[in-house]
């Protein structure tokens, strides 16, 4: 995955200038690798423009670009399903390793305790994090919980004003959404119990939550969409659900009974 220079270029494409688009097109068309001076002459651009292009796609210099691009050309000529599978397995392994390294059983059990004590709860999430929130809702609705997933910006602001002390809310955001950070501060000041799952330990969310689970974030090529962005949050949901249905035996029986509904479909 670290060799996927083409993914880096495509990911940064929206922010390219006209000159940078010309440079990008050269590499996207799998043209031969050239020294920076020859490439500059070929494209009628300056070497400085090529260096800025390298910085924009997250590389240190042109030498690094040439290396990754050469690896791409090599891999492209020998591409097979096994290589793709190995790359994906490596990316998944990095995500699981990071989550395992940050695992805090005490926090997970505290979250389970909150879920068990509350019947009603709200989840604030936007983008792909909202998709993960829907999975949380599906799982815990089967244990008798009433959960509302709120993903619209205006609806989130309204809900923040309506919730009161004694209510339970979750915020799911991989990178630390600024709008959700403001909402967390409002909820904290109102005395709402707040649980946060995020991949950004530097977010102000961590200062306003009762419990914070730090999950893996996506970086480099993984952030381009090769790995689904909701996976790090979904894994944390799996952990919470796993502990919850085993800690509370009556919940497990209720959860199993819902299987009959699906088996009748």
From TrEMBL:
Annotated HTH rpiR-type domain residues: 3-76
Keyword Transcription regulation among UniProt keywords: yes
Keyword list, A-Z: DNA-binding, Transcription, Transcription regulation
Start and end residues of each SIS domain: 111-250
Entry annotated with the keyword Glycoprotein: no
CDD domains: SIS_RpiR
Record protein name field: MurR/RpiR family transcriptional regulator
Organism: Clostridium hominis
């Amino acid at each position: 995955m670290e060799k996927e220079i083409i993914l880096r270029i495509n990911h940064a494409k929206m922010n390219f200038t006209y000159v940078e688009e010309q440079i990008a097109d050269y590499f996207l068309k799998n043209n031969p690798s050239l020294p920076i001076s020859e490439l500059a002459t070929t494209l009628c651009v300056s070497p400085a423009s090529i260096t800025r292009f390298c910085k924009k796609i997250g590389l240190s210099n042109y030498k690094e670009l040439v290396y990754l691009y050469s690896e791409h050309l090599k891999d492209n000529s020998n591409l097979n399903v096994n290589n793709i599978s190995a790359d994906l397995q490596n990316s998944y392994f990095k995500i699981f390793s990071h989550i395992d390294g940050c695992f805090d059983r005490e926090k997970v059990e505290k979250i389970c305790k909150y879920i068990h004590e509350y019947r009603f709860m709200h989840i604030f999430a936007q983008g792909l994090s909202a998709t993960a929130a829907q999975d949380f809702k599906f799982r815990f609705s089967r244990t008798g919980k009433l959960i509302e997933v709120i993903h619209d910006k205006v609806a989130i602001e309204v809900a923040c004003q309506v919730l009161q002390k004694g209510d339970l809310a979750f915020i799911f955001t991989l990178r630390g959404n600024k709008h959700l950070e403001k909402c967390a501060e409002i909820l904290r000041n109102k005395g709402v119990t707040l649980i946060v799952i995020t991949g950004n330990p530097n977010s102000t969310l961590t200062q306003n939550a009762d419990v914070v689970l730090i999950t893996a974030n996506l970086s480099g090529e993984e952030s381009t969409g090769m790995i689904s962005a909701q996976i790090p949050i979904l894994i944390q949901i799996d952990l919470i659900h796993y502990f919850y249905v085993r800690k509370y035996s009556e919940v497990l029986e209720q959860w199993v009974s819902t299987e009959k509904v699906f088996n009748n479909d």
